[in-house]
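Q: GDYXXLXY protein, please. Structure only.
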Amino acid sequence: MKISFKTKLLLCMLIPVVILLSMTITPLLTLYKGTEVYIKANAYSSSDSFRGKNLSIEYSINHLDRSKFITEILNKEYKNYNPMNGYAVLKKNGNFYDVDYITLKKPTSGLYLKCFFTLYQEEEPNDKIDPRVYVNYNLDKYFSSEKEGLTPTHEFKYESEMTWNYLAKIKIYKGYALLHDVILKK
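A: Structure for GDYXXLXY protein:
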């Protein structure tokens, strides 16, 4: 059976459309079925030629103490800097959510975020090892809004000065997170 040129052309035009539509399924499910949570954040003014003026966002859940990792993860021997995939299980703490623990196995219930992290650190005799680990959640790191008053007035020079003056409104569905809004705390 010979396929006509018009049929081949139609198939070639439909393939990119189908791929683009399939890429919107997870974000749309998260938007409509996701659970809304608030996470503490800091925002910094930034701008570039692609995004224009925006807020660069740092989440409080990005820097975690090693005690948040299950012992199975901490007892492994790491010989390289390759990131590990895991899941951060969230728990409610007042009006916002914090990380309860990090595990390698996908949780069957509750709120969780897919994440990746690197625990390997080179040890030198005189160096103090940082007890915290940077965990990446693939959350949006830039946010643009037409709201007035979202522009930060103070840039932090030291991490000890951070006060987490913003709340990030995030929707989570089966580990996938979508930044919905950034709100200035009152």
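A: Brief note, in case it's useful. The chain has a mean pLDDT of 81.
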